Amino acid sequence: MGRSLVKCLLWGLIVLVHLHGHRGCFDEERMGLLEIKEEFVRSTPSKTIRDPLLPSWVDDHKSECCEWERVTCNSTTGHVTHLSLHNIWDWEFHTEMDPLGFFEYMVWFLNVSLFESFKELRSLDLSFNAIGGWIEHKGSQILLRLNKLERLNLDFNLFNRSIIPSLRLLTSLKALNLSYNEVKGSFPAKDLEMLDLRYNSLTGSLTVQDFKSLSKLRKLEHLDLGENGFNEGIIRSLGALSALKSLKLDSNFMKGPLYDQDLPALDRLEVLDMSMNDFTGIVPPLIGALSSLKSLFLGRNKLNGSLPAEGLCKLQKLEELDLSWNSFEGTLPSCLYNLTSLQLLDLSGNQFRGNISSLIAGLTFLKHVDLSHNIFEGFSFDSFANHSKLEFFQFICQDKKAEIETENSDWVPLFQLEFLVISNCSLNKLSNQIPKFLFHQHSLRVLDLSQNMLKGPFPNWLFGNNTRLEYSTLKDNSFSGNFHLPQCLNFTYWMDVSNNQLNGQLQGNIGNVLPKTWYLKLSNNNLNGPLPSSIGNMSILRGFDVSFNNFFGEVPKELLAGCLELIELALSNNNFDGHLLSSDFNSTMLEVLRISDNWFTGIISNELSSKHLSLLDASNNNMSGKIPIWICNRTSLDEADGILLQNNYFTGQIPCEKIEFKFLDLSHNFLWGSLPSWSSSSLQYLHLEENRFSGSIPKAFLNISELLILDISGNRLSGSIPSVISNAFNLRILLLRGNRLSGTIPTQLCQLIEISLIDLSRNFLSGTIPHCFQHFVANNTQSFGFVYYSNRLYVSIVNGVLANGNTGHLTVEVNFVTKYRLSSYKGSILDYMSGLDLSCNNLTGEIPIELGKLQGIHALNLSHNQLTGSIPKTLSNLTELESLDLSHNSLSGKIPQELIELTFLAVFSVAYNNLSGRTPDRKAQFGTFDASSYKGNSFLCGLPLEKNCTTTKDSPPMPTQSSDVSDEKWHKVDQAVFFTSFSVTCIIFFLGVVSVLYINPRWQLWCYNLIEDCIYSCYFSIAITLRKLFVRLYN
Q: What percent of the chain has pLDDT over 90?
């Protein structure tokens, strides 16, 4: 009886102790925590101080340390058991950043002896702290005292292999996370259950022999070796890990066929990730032997063929199957219908075909489905009639042929989607209406219905039903009506409704409706009216694009004053006016400013304070004044993308002493003076045409090795073409038309092996055409990216969606004379256009036969020179030629009959030469040319000329009668009336022209250029006529 009473008392005491626990932390551990805080404060990298650091950790005995942040104690003993010091300085990392690259500038070393007080510590998290290792001689042996530590997280630091010996002292360690470090060497402990070595410096040099230590890890259940450099030889050595449940080998250098014998027999394996390698061949049938497998990830390899039914279909427990971005083809095996536990199915990026609707209908546990980028016949949403768990559906079609039907008037879905992407498909082909089942969706966070040819009123209700919508894009459809969002959308940070048919004005409170939006794109619609001033309330707006609409008025000052985080602002192709750039911007983060094709006036302020500005496009406005020097010389623009100020009224000289842009366009202004002697390591596109520059071409211009386009046509440049032009060896387009250049054509032009367009017309060049033009590469098919994209805006990822804030592109445009007209060539067409124009010069000698080797050329113009000799037969080799003009020269001999082989020729002229004989046969394209192509050649005969080739003697010209008829019956009154009315008419016309030119300066420029062109044309005509006369007299 007594013993029973004692036992009861003891058990009661134990229960009370457990219920009451230990109150108050131990002083030793309290002091240890404060020392750890002091260590972190002392080691805080510069510019990362966040005061106060660990504010709850205070040296106050009244403060219970077990209640401090990041600290967990055992409720019974009061000892610290869990210590989380993850990202102690709260660094922020965007998804495109490399944390390890950032950490290299923040690295520090930790005194591990600080943890000797925590003898009951079970879990320690030191991740994301840029720790480079332990401080030497500071007690790494202290780790022996942490004999109860089971979980250690060191990921995202800079530990190297020197840490391995100290980790072996942690005898109780079961879970070790060393991912994203720089660790090398063998594995540190034998009793581990979880080992994470992701993203280290482990490479294929660690072969099977190096992994003999794996056999000691009998208890290992989770192994992550992803994002290293292992080869496929490691796979077989993993067979000794009999307890393994999760194996991740993704993002390594494994390649070749994945044979059956390579797969270890791991009966307990539940997760296998071998994605993002270079495996080829088929999925091995033996994979079906992994009977416990729940997750299989083989995405982003080079696997091909059809799916083996005998392999995958045996995985009855499979819950996740990722086969994305391989080269699988054919139809899916019907036995996949039996994988009823499947929750994730990703088949995107393959060549699967057939109808998948019936298969999906049977997999009712699906949560995540991605069928994008295949050639399925289509898909019906009726397949999801019994799916209550579906959260994610993505179907991005390769073309608009895949039909997706969602319409069923009686269907109310059982699921609530969070993620819906249907893009570039034929969605609801018969009605082109937005899916009606969306009326029943209220949990959407990501929505993409772009490029589906949807029409009807804009679905404003969609945003009212889904108030937690974060990312939405309805771009490239035909939605119409007003864009009036129903209420405050506090979670929407990305919205793109560009390329629709929206009209009307923006709601006045749009800035209050979208207070937390980062990116708003409304471009390419029919919106009008002024911009609401409430946009200034969108304080975290980073990208705003309303280009290609009908907005008018001044840009509200609130936008510039309130949107302090603005990175990209696109207002181009509207009817805005005012002095936008004449005042300072508060948007100091601004990187891209596009305001082209508006009616902005005034000057560009010297106080435009955005030091990050990388792209400024203010072209096609009415701006004036001088170009401010900050545009060129600020060091913050060293990585700038471009400055475009063409078609304005800027005057003065170019202030730039150094150019580090990729794109500079100052064309069609009133700039004058000499061209600067620039040097640049990045300039690719230079447009200075149609200004008033004079002097010679600076040699420094032609030493820019990255230069692709040089257009300085339509100026008053003189002197010769510098021979150093060969240094611009990447040059694709050279336009020097309409200057006053003289001298010979330098043979160094032939060394430009990438050149495709040369225009030297309307100058005073003399001498012969270089024979080396045979090396002119006119059939260059390599694209040099004439469509230049600006991609400065941030990139974010929402549930796997890559959100790229690229609001536009710079389309390169050049003018080139072909087919008798000055044509404009833009964008990617320049990759296919090629031509040579040497017209309107003083070139002499014969046409080189080597020009016949320019087989990809589309336009050749040698007219209005003094060329002699015959037309080379080799020109018939120019099979792509569309325009050939040899007129107004002194060519003689016959026209080669072989030219009729030029089947693409649309323009042909040999007029005003000394050619003789029969015209080419009226075949192919030559059957379309009339007599004007041959006129001015007295000795040519045959169709389409009236002169018959059988005539042996020229018929004398018929005398023409001329009579001077004088009418003496005019009366003096009639004469006075006629001359008076004629004089008044002339005066009125003259005053009208002067008035128009005074009002519109742009027409003034046109008039001046027209007069200048007429003077040059008259000069060339007289000079060439006199030259021909002297040649004939002396010959």
A: 44
Domain containing residue 106: CATH number:
3.80.10.10
Residue 171 covered by a domain: yes
Nearest to 817 by CA among 878, 760, 753: 760
Which residues, in sequence order, are CB contacts of 538 under 8 Å at separation 6+?
511, 514, 515, 517, 520, 544, 562, 563
Phi-psi region of 456 (alpha: psi -120 to 50; beta: other; left: phi over 0): left
Token match 């061949």: residue? 281
- Specify the range with the lowest mean pLDDT, choosing from 28-42, 549-563, 649-663: 649-663
Closest to 246 (Cα-Cα) out of 213, 184, 295, 186: 295
Whole-number Å distance between alpha carbons of 609 and 217: 61
Question: Rounded to 5 degrees, what angle do the CA atoms 531, 537, 543 make?
Answer: 70
Q: Tokens representing 518?
A: 């980062």
- For the record, the structure tokens of 567 come out as 């990175």
DSSP category for residue 721? P
pLDDT above 50 (res 967): no
Query: For the segment 889-917, what is each residue's pLDDT rounded down to a tens digit?
Result: 999 999 999 999 988 999 999 999 999 99
Other beta carbons within 10 angstroms of residue 182's beta carbon come to 17
pTM of the model: 0.79
As a whole number of angstroms, the distance between CA 776 and CA 709 comes to 16
pLDDT at residue 416 tops 80: yes
Average pLDDT over residues 929-946: 90
Nearest residue to 689 via CA among 746, 632, 762, 767: 762
561 contacts: CB under 8 Å, gap ≥ 6: 536, 586
- Angle in degrees, CA 377, 379, 385, rounded to 5: 155
Number of other residues whose CB lies within 10 A of the CB of residue 410: 4
Could you tell me the residue range of the domain that residue 37 belongs to?
Answer: 27-177
How far is it between the farthest Cα atoms of the chain?
162
Virtual CA dihedral for 794, 796, 801, 806, nearest 10 degrees?
Answer: -10
Residue type, 351: Q
Cβ neighbours of residue 15 under 8 Å, at least 6 residues apart? none
If one counts the domains in the chain, the total is 1
Task: Supply the pLDDT for residue 959.
Answer: 36
Per-residue burial over 184-202, b = 16 or more CB atoms within 10 Å of its CB, e = otherwise: bbebbbeebbbbbbbbbeb
Check: CB of residue 298 under 8 Å from CB of residue 322.
Answer: yes
By mean pLDDT, which of 50-54, 271-275, 565-569 is the weakest? 50-54
Q: Is the pLDDT of residue 105 over 50?
A: yes
CB-CB contact of 693 with 668 (8 Å)? no
Say if 998 falls within a structural domain: no
Cα angle 248, 251, 256; round to 5: 95
- Spell out the residues 6+ positions from residue 456 whose beta carbon is closer than 8 angstroms to its own: 432, 433, 434, 479, 480
Euclidean distance between CA atoms 241 and 225, whole angstroms:
14
Question: Quick check: 519 and 497 in contact, CB under 8 A?
Answer: no
How confident is the model over 203-227, as pLDDT tens digits?
654 444 445 555 567 788 999 989 8
**pLDDT for 743-760, tens place per residue?**
999 999 988 888 989 999
d(CA 276, CA 1019): 69
Please report whether residue 65 resides in a domain: yes
Q: Do residues 966 and 941 lie in contact, with contact meaning Cβ atoms separated by under 8 Å?
A: no
Q: Quick check: is 561 in a domain?
A: no
DSSP state of 182: B
Res 826 pLDDT > 60: yes
Q: What is the dihedral of CA 150, 152, 153, 154, to 10 degrees?
A: -160
Residue 729 near residue 754 (C-beta atoms within 8 A) = yes
How many Å separate Cα 17 from the centre of its chain? Answer: 65
Cα angle 672, 676, 680; round to 5: 140
**C-alpha 682 chain-centroid distance:** 18
Q: How far apart are CA 562 and CA 585, in angstroms?
A: 10
